[in-house]
Each structure stands twice: as structure tokens, then as C-alpha cells.
Amino acid sequence: MEETTAKKKSGNREFVGLVTSDKMDKTIVVQVATKKLHRLYKKYKAHDEQNTAHIGDTVRIVENRPISKEKCWRLAEIIERAK
What we know:
The protein contains no helices and 5 strands. It is mostly beta strands. The chain is globular, with a radius of gyration of 15 Å.
């Protein structure tokens, strides 16, 4: 028998956007410049565990399991800090 290695599914979506709000605890609101935005909210709420992202930062968010009613994205990295 051959051994098979299990690979993690890499089909998760990811976006790069600008943080527009960081007022909530462990949550940031990200404005993404794509052709198709969220039809109701127009922005994405993402989980920020350490509260490291702030308004004006450029960040990369990735799709995650649902964390709350509106939050199913998480902060992957901060690409550029606000000046």
C-alpha cells in the first residue's frame, strides 16, 4: 500500500484591504476594493486576536470558520502600517 499525505485545503479566499475601524475588541472592519463586495454590509469584519491592526493599515484577511454572526474572516498579516 502507498502512503498518502493529507494536505490542508488551500481553497480559502483571501483579500487585501484597508482597515476602516478598530473600535471593537478583537475585531477590525476592512474595506476591500473588489468588483463584488458583500451585498448587504459592503465591508468585512475580521478577527484580530492581539488587537494589532489600526485604522489606515493595509491588511490581508483570510476566510475562517464562523466566529460570530457577521465575522467569518481572520487577520492573516499586516502588509503596511498607517503613517
